[in-house]
Amino acid sequence: MVDVGHTVLFSADQIKDRVAGLAAEIRRGYPADTTLHLVAVLKGGFVFLADLARVLDCPVTIDFVAVSSYGAATRSTGPVRLRQDLHLPVRDRDVLIVEDIIDTGETLAWILEHLRAGGPRSLRTVAFLDKPSRRTLDIQADYVGFTIPDRFVVGYGLDHDERLRNLPYVAVLEPSDVTPTGETMTNTAPELSDPTS
Ligand code: PRP
Predict the structure, then answer these.
(1) Would the CB of 106 count as within 6 Å of ligand 1?
(2) What is the model's pTM?
(3) Which end of the chain is more exposed for a tag (fewer CB within 10 A), N or C?
(4) Counting Cβ atoms within 10 Å, is residue 162 exposed (0-12), middle (13-18) or buried (19+)?
(5) Maximum distance among all alpha carbons in the chain?
(6) What is d(CA 47, CA 137) in angstroms, rounded to the nearest whole number?
(7) Counting atoms of ligand 1 from 1, which one is nearest the CA of 106?
C-alpha cells in the first residue's frame, strides 16, 4: 500500500462509520418500498458507491456516468464534459447521485440538469466530501459525509494524476509530498515527488 498519509484526514474506520450513518439517514428519507437508483459519478465515486450500496437497507439499482471538469492542468474550471453516459433510463426512478466530492459544484450542477431531463420520480444527491469554500455555484448535496477545508485530498476514490484512488483512507497531500512548483494546495494538484519512496 502506498503511504502518502502524513496527514490522514479520515481513517478507514471513521469512513466506515460515517457511510453507515449516511445510509441510515438516506434510508429514512424515502418510503419503505423504495428502490433507490444509485448513479455514481466516475471515476472518483466508485469506492463510495460500493460501500454505500452494501450498507443501504433497501433494494438498489446501479448506473454510472463519467464526466470531466478538470483539464490537463488539473484545475477545477471550465466546462463539464460527458465522457460516458448512463446505460439505464432514469424515468420514474428514485435517483440518488453518488459523488465523491463537491468542489466548485459545476459537475454536480451539470449532472443534475442532465438527469432531470430524463424524468426521474425523485432526484437527490449524496456527496462523500464537501468543500464548500471552493463553491462557484449555489448548490449543495442533500446528504454529505464530511465537510472539509480547502485542501487537496486523495484516497477513497480521489486521485492525484490517476493514482491513490485505492487508499482506504482520505489523506491530505502535504507540501512535503510535492515538488516546489509554487502551486497552492487548493484544487490545483501539484506534482508528486515520489509517494512510493
Ligand atoms: C472530481 C470529483 C467530482 C468533481 C468535483 O472529478 O470526482 O466529480 O471533480 O468538482 P467540481 O465540484 O469542481 O465540479 P474529476 O473531474 O477530477 O474526475 P475523476 O472523478 O475521474 O477524478
Answers:
(1) yes
(2) 0.86
(3) C
(4) exposed
(5) 54
(6) 26
(7) 14
Return the C-alpha cell found at 62: 446501479
The pLDDT confidence band at residue 174, using thresholds 50, 70 and 90, is confident
Q: For the chain, what percent of residues have pLDDT higher than 70?
A: 81
- 103 an active-site residue? yes
Model confidence pLDDT, tens digit, residues 83-141: 999 999 999 999 999 999 999 999 999 999 999 999 999 999 999 999 999 999 999 99
Protein residue with its CA nearest to atom 17 in ligand 1: 70
**Residue 14's CB: how many other CB atoms inside 10 A?**
15
Confidence of residue 194 (pLDDT cuts 50, 70, 90): very low
Atom of ligand 1 nearest to the CA of 187: 13
- Beta strand extents in 36-194 (DSSP E only): 36-42, 60-70, 76-84, 94-102, 122-130, 143-147, 153-154, 170-172
CA of residue 31 to ligand 1 center, whole Å? 31
Torsion of CA 6, 10, 12, 14, to 10 degrees: 150
Q: Which among 51, 100, 103, 177 is annotated as catalytic?
A: 103
